[in-house]
Amino acid sequence: xxxxxxxxxxxxxxxxxxxxxxxxxxxxxxxxxxxxxxxxxxxxxxxxxxxxxxxxxxxxxxxxxxxxxxxxxxxxxxxxxxxxxxxxxxxxxxxxxxxxxxxxxxxxxxxxxxxxxxxxxxxxxxxxxxxxxxxxxxxxxxxxxxxxxxxxxxxxxxxxxxxxxxxxxxxxxxxxxxxxxxxxxxxxxxxxxxxxxxxxxxxxxxxxxxxxxxxxxxxxxxxxxxxxxxxxxxxxxxxxxxxxxxxxxxxxxxxxxxxxxxxxxxxxxxxxxxxxxxxxxxxxxxxxxxxxxxxxxxxxxxxxxxxxxxxxxxxxxxxxxxxxxxxxxxxxxxxxxxxxxxxxxxxxxxxxxxxxxxxxxxxxxxxxxxxxxxxxxxxxxxxxxxxxxxxxxxxxxxxxxxxxxxxxxxxxxxxxxxxxxxxxxxxxxxxxxxxxxxxxxxxxxxxxxxxxxxxxxxxxxxxxxxxxxxxxxxxxxxxxxxxxxxxxxxxxxxxxxxxxxxxxxxxxxxxxxxx
Amino acid sequence: xxxxxxxxxxxxxxxxxxxxxxxxxxxxxxxxxxxxxxxxxxxxxxxxxxxxxxxxxxxxxxxxxxxxxxxxxxxxxxxxxxxxxxxxxxxxxxxxxxxxxxxxxxxxxxxxxxxxxxxxxxxxxxxxxxxxxxxxxxxxxxxxxxxxxxxxxxxxxxxxxxxxxxxxxxxxxxxxxxxxxxxxxxxxxxxxxxxxxxxxxxxxx
Lengths: 515, 205
Known about the structure:
heterodimer; A: mainly alpha; 24 helices; B: alpha+beta; 4-stranded antiparallel sheet
């Protein structure tokens, strides 16, 4: 049976018909994992591979250290390898080895300054080559803005760092970027699997959503650079998949273990994962409530399993931090206190609201003259690359409103067409909404901390990409919104649009840095 | 459908590459070594002695902001406004580029004024030190120097004709230097598009 035929039945049926259920308890773990992987449709693997290739392409296009906070994230890995310790300082004073490369690449002059391009003379290149071969120390205790982040992504990045140890610092950076590109594949794979669980009736729509995410230029750029956001996207997509699977098939002990492990990985990847946490735990509670109808004991045991597994690794991380005199959990606790110290909670809520949506009557205007929904978020998704300093000409953002509005109309149509089945899954949709609001709230609160000096510092759509699964669902529903006959045609058009978007975004990046 | 989409994209890329990029044709020679002042409310500034080349289509001011305010620019010859332009809110970075109608002739000893409105944070005015007589003024007071200003117009050469120079630049400052870098980039992009198209056709058949 081909994958296409497999995909046209429900995942449950697909399991049964393609692979007769063996006695799982008798089989070894690697064999069981291999069996699970074999059940993943070919289309999902293809989408994942597309995302990897796209991110690898971006990794070659983006000049070294010209992606958001890349010098800091690289420094974290270097500190970890060279000193064997987590970085303790948040200053942007890195190892002599990194500092000299940043200087030779004129990184500081190019960053935030689209009028300045990368080095372009043989003399500058010769200087860089000379300095790359100097026996400078790679040790430092600083990792800039990354210093407060948990270590999972950086620990994984030590693998390519070691693997390229015979090369120069730029060789290491290139290999680390390629390693990071794998996370784009993982993100897309989990988005596809999420769609398969959450929107099971039209298998072709999974491919539309999967490819839409795979060709998203923002995902390509971020996963093609060294930044813990890349792993955060993958882990977050995995969390959405786990919850969708739970809502569709029930909370089994196996799924509880997987969900707990994913939450633990998320908590050890980036502090922003905390934004998804309330929704994730609420989801586990709802799943437990449902499962207790069958067996109360099994339900509570699964919940306890998930919570314990989720808590142990972050608990160890906190213990290490306390023992070594670091922040309890990076910088998450001080900002939480400082946001409320800035004023009443209502002011903060009002700020966060306006950070995303039009101001309501009676609200103080925190963003005068700005349509944040459009200027921060819609325009940001259309094109905001490099150190958020690389943008298309203004007319592109105006023109982009046409496909954005069309997609919105199709999405609403898709929701209306599927309203009966969606209404039945209101609790599941509420959980995803809580996760989205939680993440958006965390990003908005972080920006409130910067108010009024650097308002809008966090107005970067990359912070919302942990909800890539929902983004994929919007695309899949938009395609379905065109109806059974035209849906595939519209789906293909959506993917073509995203391919074009990706190509033009790459050309934009090339023109900005090398033009 | 898929082939049509890809063909349309290729045509659009071809068309875009026929356009000329904007280039800096002159500056006022000031470095960006100093922050002359940091504004947090609506404010304007003027500086005299600016030379605008003929054909200028945009004026770039060294203003640094996280979420840039609305910027109105005026260029005056004596008391007569010769050209003006506006850039909306929401720009980001170390400079703002304000489009203006193309200048028909070179302007010398012109006065350049700009006004910022709808600020949502601090805006730093960057430039270099100068004597008091030629310094920029804001609210009637002299700033400690002049703001860096650049003047832009279309380069007159298409992106196609600049391809060689762009590839040369791409070859520098990376792990393995060389113009060959464009081949893996093109191969990866082509492979992603080909694979994506294949799976799309296969699944949507």
